[in-house]
Amino acid sequence: MSIDTPGEVVLQAEKLRVAYGKNLALTIPAFEVRGRIIAIIGHNGSGKSTMLKTLLELLLPRQGTLHAKWVDDKSETRLVPERHMAFSPENGAVFEDLPVESYVKLWCRIKHRDSNYYKKAGSRIVEQLSVTSLFSKLGRELSKGQRRRVQAAVGFLSNPRLFLFDEPFDGLDIMQSAELAGVMLEESRRMSMIVSSHRMDVVERIADVVVVLRDGQVHTVGAVDEVCAMLCGGSILVSSDIHQRLSLATVVAALKAEFGSCLVNQIGHQVLVTGSEANLDTLARFFHRQQINDIKLDPVRPSLLDAMRYHLNKLN
Amino acid sequence: MKAIILAFSLIRVPKLFVSLLLWPMIIGVCVALAQALFSSAYFGIVTETPEQFEKRIMATDEHAWLRQLLFGTSALLDPIQLCVWRQSPTGEIPPNDGCRVQTNDVVIRAADPATYDSREMLSFFDGSTPRLHVCRSCTGDIVIKGDGEERTSEVRGLHALGIFILTDAQVNNRIGTHYIRAKADIDAMREIGGTVLLQPEGSPHPINMTQATKIMVLILNTAAITIIALWLSLRGHRKVLEYFSRNGALLPLVAACGKNSFYAALWIITLVRVGLFLLAVVPATIVVYAKAIPAETLQIFVGDGAEFTLWLTGIAASLSCLAIVASLAELKQRHTVVSFLYRYVPLCLCLSGSLVWFVAVFNDGPYSELIQNVIAATPVVGISPILLSPLVSINTTVIALHSVLAGLLVLLLMRLNSQWFAAHLEEI
Question: Given CB atoms, is A53 within the 8 Å cutoff of chain B?
Answer without folding.
Answer: yes
